[in-house]
Amino acid sequence: MDSYFTVFLFFGAAFCISGFSATAHSFCGTCECSRTVVNCSGRNIDHLPTHNIKGIQGLDLSFNNISNFPEHFFRGFLSLQMLNMSYNRIQSIHPNTFASLRNLTHLELANTSLTAEILEISVFGALKDTKIETLILAGLD
């Protein structure tokens, strides 16, 4: 829990320090954006934007209605370190979804509709090439 709190503080501070930059990202009208953090938590999002977000280190998509992620959605997110997809309707994840997230250290998939089989096939294999330190999977189906 301490590492989660530390990660939260780090990205929260980054958000405050870097300031709001509404023109930098394609969906900042819906989400709170800074140069390094995009917070889309609880925005009733049911699909993902089609534009990649360069330079983002933190992306919070929790508490939405997202049900799937395109195979190469995260391809342009080379700097992404923290990704929260908890409390969504995610039932499946393509094995290549996380393949390009080499800098990912913190991933949350808690309270989704993912099963142990899907996690084993789609998530764990893709994370072997990342810098993952924290993986939160509580409340899965």
UniProtKB/TrEMBL annotation:
Domain of life per record: Eukaryota
Keyword Transit peptide set for record: no
Membrane topology field: Single-pass membrane protein
Keywords from the UniProt entry: Cell membrane, Disulfide bond, Ion channel, Ion transport, Leucine-rich repeat, Membrane, Repeat, Signal, Transmembrane, Transmembrane helix, Transport
Alphabetized SUPFAM superfamilies for the sequence: L domain-like
A Gene Ontology cellular-component term: plasma membrane
Cell location: Cell membrane
InterPro entries named among the record's database cross-references: KCNMA1_auxiliary (IPR051432), Leu-rich_rpt (IPR001611), Leu-rich_rpt_typical-subtyp (IPR003591), LRR_dom_sf (IPR032675)
Residues in the signal sequence: 1-24
UniProt keyword annotation of Cell wall biogenesis/degradation present: no
One Gene Ontology term from the biological process aspect of the record: monoatomic ion transmembrane transport
Listed PROSITE patterns: LRR
A Pfam entry, by short name: LRR_8
Protein known as: LRRNT domain-containing protein
